[in-house]
Amino acid sequence: MEFDLLMTTEQLRGVLQFLRDAERLKNVTRTSWTSAGHQESVAEHTWRLALMAVVLETAFPDVDMAKLMKMCVIHDLGEAISGDISATLQPPTGKADQERRDLLQLLEPLPVEISTEIVTLWDEYESAASPEARIAKALDKLETIMQHNQGRNPPAFDYRFNLEYGRRYTADDPVIVALRSLLDSETLARAEGHTDG
To answer: N or C terminus: fewer CB in 10 A for the chain?
Structure first.
């Protein structure tokens, strides 16, 4: 971001307001359950997605790590407004348009330089338009599958859905492909009732 390090009091108030509004992600739940049996929040998903990027950094030597981390942190920000829609319940057109509108609303208090950067990164992520965006998307899908495999899910949970979930984002990079293979084996075991989570 290229702007003065010193922000005005009004800009700092806007930053605080944005951070207060983004706190909603701690309460917005997903259709994933934790190993303790509570419904996962978007913030919890985002945290582990960012952690995945950190521990896998050396697997992606040509990726701008700062950019990847930013994408991981902001990819679901819009869900603070209208919530998360499970992949199994999304309309055929997806949820991107609504999520982008919600993101723009959430970013309103921020200085324009910051909000512009976040929107640019979000658009790049959404369209998988860069190596960083493709890795972020792949890790996002893998984190979701991992949580479904690890969670204490309801009895009728559809594990088999995950065998194809996000496949187009997880089929290129060799490390991502290897992780996907491991997670698919776990998914199949859960679907067949061979594990108890």
So the answer is: N
